Amino acid sequence: PKKTGPMPEFEAAYADTHVERAFSDPPPPDRDALLDTARARYQRALKADPKHKGALLGMARMHARLGERERAVEWYKKYLKAYPDDAGAAHEVAYAHARWGDWAGAVAWCDAALK
Hints:
This protein is mainly α. The protein has helices at 8-22, 31-48, 53-65, 69-82, 87-99, 103-114. It is built from 6 helices and no strands. The mean pLDDT is 93.
């Protein structure tokens, strides 16, 4: 069957570029628009493939960089539910908790990464 529209890999990769640009220094004047575009692209990738690694991690990383802890952890959990053997992602969640000053959460996620 012929697929229409951009492939999930393209959508997620292009979204990543929007996120990187949004967090560049100095912050661009269209930062919010870049983040909205990235969010929409990740969502399109997930609509095409609900378990797309790049889109799931992209959403988690974007929310973590925005300091949106609950949403970031929610997306990391979605990713780890689909890919439970990815210790690197669990370590990434631990690192995010450390950046947020949540040392108990960081230790808990380090333990999860070790398992």
